[in-house]
Every structure is written in C-alpha cells, then in structure tokens.
Amino acid sequence: MQGFDRKGMAARLAQDIPEGWIVNLGIGIPTMVGDYVPLDREVIFHSENGILGMGPAPAADKVDPWLVNAGKQPVTLRPGGSYCHHADSFAMIRGGHIDLCVLGAFEVAANGDIANWATSENDTAPAVGGAMDLGAGAKRLWVIMEHTTKDGRPKLVEQCGYPLTTPAAVKRVYTNLGVFEVVPGKGFVVVDLAPGLTLEQVQSVTGAPLHTQ
Amino acid sequence: MINKIVQSMADAMAGIKDGSTVLIGGFGAVGQPDQLIEALIEQGAKDLTCVANNAGTGRVGLARLMELGRVRKIICSFPRSAGSVVFEELYRAGKIELEIVPQGTMAERMRAAGAGVPAFFTATSVGTILAHGKEEREFNGRRYVMEHALKGDVALVEAWEGDRWGNLTYRSSGRNFNPVMAMAADLTIAQVSHIRELGELVPENVHTPGIFVNRVIHVDRGPAWA
C-alpha cells in the first residue's frame, strides 16, 4: 500500500489551511507543509524560537546565521514578520493564540491522545522541546505522519503505548494513506483516503476502528 | 558614572562561585554566548547547575564545560540533538543529573523568577509523566500543574548591541531565551557584538532594559555573524 509520498502528504494538509490562520509547524514532515501553502494565501507561520511571520528557506548565498526555525534550519522573515523572546513566543502558544499546530507523532489514539516525544518510560533523557506546550496550547492540533512504523505496526491505535505528549488533543491525522478526523466519543472518522485505496485496505493497517462519515 | 562595560573576560566572570546556577542563552548556536561560556571554562567555577535549551554540541562550549566535570546538573528541554555526544556519554555513565522541562514552561519559569512570581499553573504537561509529583488544580473546568520559578545566580546572554547602562538589543531570532534569562539572575553578563554610546539606542527599541544587566563585554563573533 503506497498512497501519498511525504510531499503529497504535506501538500494534502496544506490544502486545508485557510487564509488568515496562524500556524506552528513542528520539525520533520510538518516543516514541509509550509512549502505547499501558496505565498498569495496569507498564512502566518510561527516558530517557537520567537518568529511570527516566518518565510521559506533562503537561497544558499542569502543565508543569515541569526535567523533559524525551530529545527535550527535557515529561514527568512516575510514582510510584516516580527521577532519576540521565548516567553512571549510561548505565551502565543500557551495562551491559545495559535490557530493550528502540526506535529509528527509516534502514535495517535482514537481519543486524540498523542505520543511523540519519548519511546518508553525508561527513556530517561528524551527531548520534549515545545511539543507539550503546543499540544496543550494551540487551538487545533493536527498530526502528519506515516500510517505505520517502518516495520508495519499501526500508528493510529486504540491507546498509546508510548508516554503521552498531551492527552485528547489531536483533531485530525494526515497520513500517507488518508485523512482522519478524531471525533470525541467515536474515534477515527475517514475524511478521505489516498487515491486508489479502499477502506478495508487502510483498516487492515490501522490499530483502531475507522468510521465513515 | 554608571559603567557596566568591562574590558576583560576575567572582569566579566569575577565572583562566579562554585555551586552556582548558570542560565545560558541561545537556541542551538543562535544567541548562544559562546565567548562567555569559554570564559567560564577558564574561570574555573564548578559544581554548576546549567539551564539551557540544549545540552551542548560537539566538544566545545557547554559540552566542554560538562566534559571537564564542572556541571552537576543540567536543566533543559531538548538534551538530545545532533552532536550532543558529551551529554549522552555523561548521562549514560550517571555523571550528570538531568531535569527535563517543556520549553515553554522553562521560559515561563525564568520569566516568573524575574517578575517575582514564585510559582504558576499551566496546562502544559498535564496527563504526562512530566507532571508526576506536581501539585494539580482545576480552574474553569480544566486541569493545570504547578510549576516553580527558576532563578539563576548568573545569566550568560548574547545580545547584538549594548550600552554602558546595560541596555540591550538582539538580532532577529538571536533573542530567544536571552531576555528572560537576563531578568531571572542575580548577576547578568551580556556579550555584545556592538557597544553603543549612551543615548544611541532608540529607547522604543531597547529589548532588555539595563536594570536587568550587570556587565557588558564586547566580543567579535567573526564575519559570518557581523
């Protein structure tokens, strides 16, 4: 089962971001989402290291070492963009001012629990970064991730096995196989599937029931 | 005349005691006061608790300070990153203590310390292992955990410009943790790329007012950062 590649996943999610939203993109596939929001659609990207109005990566000869995103990659600032310090940047997150946060995850449960920072209770030095702040503080949390692990285990599950980042926070999941809404009291509801895939095929690699609308 | 500008790193580091809690600004390499960290290595204080977003990379700067056995404990949000080899070696060997703190909680704990707020409640980490052992309360139907202010004995910060009253500005995303750390320590030492005459900084554009800064030293970070 193939479905979307990573670029396709990022492009699919980007379609659903309307003009005017303030959006924080996590490290990895989430960062790629920014490349698929057309520049004439005014979406304001926030980066937790104190950037509001972040623009795309610069040309190699235009890199400014002072200007990096949360993944420490060089970025640019769009006209209208601004800088702030870390406490203000996280006030934007924790104070509920960010319309959407997109994170990667190890697992998402049918009740919206997300696990994306530690791979076991014994992993005593995991890196949490801003994930728990974003999970608890953003108005909406969407996850973008592969549908299964590299060895084929489902990442959409009944209950997370890994330590939680935030309970009951995820509203939507975008995977290589489709888009799934997390509906309280019901679980994963299929919004759409990648071209050519059937519900039965996708259900067979999902660890929780998939509902249709 | 008030003059917080010091001419030597020895003067900048004077009086930092063993056992100090040292707040170190920066997000990765950006806004990280590399020259002050080198000077702290030189100065010799040990048994330190360091607060920084990352746990050092390579074998220089904070990583070098740790490798020399001078850091008892590190408080950070993202200890593991590409090149955090020294931290991982020390951590596996049980030679360094780690307190992992969500990034926003870490910033807010220092802001609180600087503002005289001893503790506060936040929704971040509720329902996770990082909330274990912390007091929880419900406000307006939502659960929150109590977090304590995080105060430093010393803050090492990097700024773009500074004047003799200690007023600072920062360069783009180099601001990050530096202003909250400057607020949160008894002794705040700033390395700046440019010294400005008093009155030269536009008052509306001062990011850290001099009240939060004790010492300012000029450093040349080289052409890439100019």
From TrEMBL, chain A:
PANTHER family under this entry?
Answer: KETOACID-COENZYME A TRANSFERASE (PTHR13707), SUCCINYL-COA:3-KETOACID COENZYME A TRANSFERASE SUBUNIT B-RELATED (PTHR13707:SF57)
Q: What is this protein called?
A: 3-oxoacid CoA-transferase subunit B
Q: Which Pfam family name is an example for this entry?
A: CoA_trans
Q: Does the keyword Transferase apply?
A: yes
Identify its protein family.
Answer: Belongs to the 3-oxoacid CoA-transferase subunit B family.
Recorded GO MF terms: CoA-transferase activity
Gene3D superfamilies recorded: Glutaconate Coenzyme A-transferase (3.40.1080.10)
Task: List, alphabetically, the InterPro entries matched.
Answer: 3-oxoacid_CoA-transf_B, CoA_trans_fam_I, CoA_transf_AS, NagB/RpiA_transferase-like
Task: Answer whether the UniProt record assigns the keyword Transmembrane to this protein.
Answer: no
The UniProt keywords, alphabetically, are: Transferase
From TrEMBL, chain B:
Q: Does the UniProt entry include the keyword tRNA-binding?
A: no
InterPro entries per the UniProt record, alphabetical = 3-oxoacid_CoA-transf_A, CoA_trans_fam_I, CoA_transf_BS, NagB/RpiA_transferase-like
One GO molecular function term of this record is:
CoA-transferase activity
The answer to keyword Transferase applying to this record is yes
Alphabetic keyword roster: Transferase
Under PROSITE patterns, the record lists: COA_TRANSF_1
Spell out the SUPFAM superfamilies in the cross-references: NagB/RpiA/CoA transferase-like (SSF100950)
| Origin: domain of life | Bacteria
Q: Kindly name one Pfam family recorded for this protein.
A: CoA_trans
* Similarity comment: Belongs to the 3-oxoacid CoA-transferase subunit A family.
Q: Enumerate the NCBIfam families for this protein.
A: pcaI_scoA_fam
Q: What protein is this chain from?
A: 3-oxoacid CoA-transferase subunit A
